[in-house]
Amino acid sequence: MTHERIPARFEALDPRFAGIGGDRELRVLFDDGRWLEGPAYSPQGRFLLFSDIPNDRVLRYDEVSGAVHTWDARAGFTNGRTVDREGRFVQCEHGGRRVVRFEHDGSASVVADSYQGRRLNSPNDVVVHTDGSVWFTDPHYGIRNDYEGHRGDEEIGSRNVYRWSEDDGLVAASDALDGPNGLAFSPDGAFLYVSDSEHRSIVRFPVEGARLGEGSTFATADVIYDGLRIDTEGRVWAAAEDGVHVYHPDGEQLGRLAVPQVVSNLEFGGPQRNLLYLTATSRLYVLRVTVQGVSRMPSPSGAVRTAAR
Predict the structure, then answer these.
(1) Rounded to 5 degrees, what are φ and ψ at 15?
(2) Of these four, 1, 171, 293, 294, which has the most CB atoms within 10 Å of its CB?
(3) What residues contact residue 157 under an 8 Å CB cut-off, 6+ apart?
């Protein structure tokens, strides 16, 4: 376990950034990754799962003890994950080209691995709507080469955002983006924000039942956006090459948290949802902030799976 600390630099770009900040230092919790991704927090177990994709492992950070250990040593080149309202982890696998949910008894259920008889590309990131439906992005990054998965062909012919539910099965919610990547719902679930890594933009879509309406550009920058999270005020927190960008719901950038490594993804954790976890290249960082992330409100009686697979 590392105890390194580095200065936390918040840069205000808009007066409305006033009051947004936190610790003066970023704490390094882990520093032995190759390309870290997919942080998701269990409020019941007070731990964080995150992926080291090229090393094909999932790691577990215990918020109480501070220990990090391998949760899964052969993880299918797992990328993004989330926790549903029952406290179950749902994650995207590049290697298996599928989305998997871990049940309370530890078993794995395949949510989706094909669309209209063709294999998915390489599911990247996933979120759960307030109605329980699972939404995920399916770009091609995990099949371009063997670094983050297995080299393969795109069989579907588009890189979609999908919605899955028990009632409707798998639906292509949108095929409008060339590089759909991170995604997050607005607090009321009326809009879905999706980063398009091919065009260095974040697009906001209205949610229209099982599909997305016409998207509009929410933000652009000279950096590639990756994972997204939302705070309780509806502000968008976007992982980027130069740190974390923070946007007002009207699309104006309020400020930035500078980070010395490329930030792939982020997650709000802790009992108050005000611990900001960052996966950034080889490191897992954390700092306490003055905002709260949107809670997924899992059932307090749900079981938590903590053992290695």
Answers:
(1) -55, -25
(2) 293
(3) none
Q: SS3 helix, strand, coil % of the chain, rounded to 5?
A: 0, 50, 50
Place of tokens 């949910």: 101
Q: How many residues belong to the chain? A: 309
Write down the residue that tokens 């999932």 correspond to: 58
Residue 180 C-beta-side C-alpha neighbours within 13 Å: 30
CB within 8 Å of 288: residues ≥ 6 apart = 22, 23, 270, 274, 275, 276
- Asked if residue 264 lies in contact with residue 290, where contact means CB atoms within 8 angstroms, the answer is no
Rg of the chain, C-alpha, whole Å: 18
Q: Which CATH architecture has domain 5-288?
A: 6 Propeller (2.120)
Residue 100: name the closest of 73, 118, 123 by CA.
123
Name the nearest CA neighbour of 144 among 122, 112, 113. 122
Residues 56-90 pLDDT 10s? 999 999 999 999 999 999 889 999 999 999 999 99
Return d(Cα 303, Cα 88) in angstroms, integer. Answer: 8
pTM above 0.70, yes or no: yes
The pair of three-digit structure tokens given for residue 273, joined into one six-digit string: 């949802």
Q: Express each pLDDT in 189-243 by its tens digit.
A: 999 999 999 999 999 999 999 999 999 999 999 999 999 999 999 999 999 999 9
Please give the span between the terminal C-alpha atoms of the chain, in angstroms, as a whole number.
Answer: 22
Distance CA 72, CA 272 (A): 28
- The token pair at 257 is 């948290």
Q: How far apart are CA 195 and CA 201, in angstroms?
A: 6
As beta bridge partners, residue 269 has 275
Query: Taking a C-beta distance cutoff of 8 angstroms, is the pair 87, 121 a contact?
Result: no
- Could you give the CA distance from residue 301 to residue 120 in angstroms, rounded to a whole number? 34
266 with 251: CB under 8 angstroms?
A: no
The domain ranges of the chain are 5-288
